[in-house]
Amino acid sequence: MLVRGLIHSDGCRVVNKVRRRGKPYEYPRYFFSNRSEDIKSIFCDALDQLGVSWRRDGDQNISIARRESVTLLDTFVGPKY
Alpha-carbon distance 55 to 19, whole Å? Predict the structure, then answer.
């Protein structure tokens, strides 16, 4: 519930579009953005407990892009309303 709430408030799920060896490639990923180091730490600790792989993407962003981790988040985050 914590991760779901944080993503719904300060995160998003996007389809990343890149080119690999000249061919277009798309994959889903999650981002979470917040200026507070405390909130980012709470978010990342919760992801660790769930077994979700993440990485920092700049000062404010957390990125979840590994296929298994995105699939896991998809099972309980759900669409934003």
Answer: 21
CA end-to-end distance (rounded Å), the chain: 16
- pLDDT per residue as tens digits for the range 27-53: 999 999 999 999 999 999 999 999 999
In the chain, domain spans: 2-76
CA distance 73 to 29: 10
pLDDT at position 42 is 97
Helices 2-10 and 37-50: angle between axes, nearest 10 degrees: 130
Fold for 2-76, please state it: Endonuclease I-creI (3.10.28)
d(CA 7, CA 1): 10
3-state secondary structure (DSSP) of residue 7: helix
Q: Percentage of the chain with pLDDT > 70? A: 99
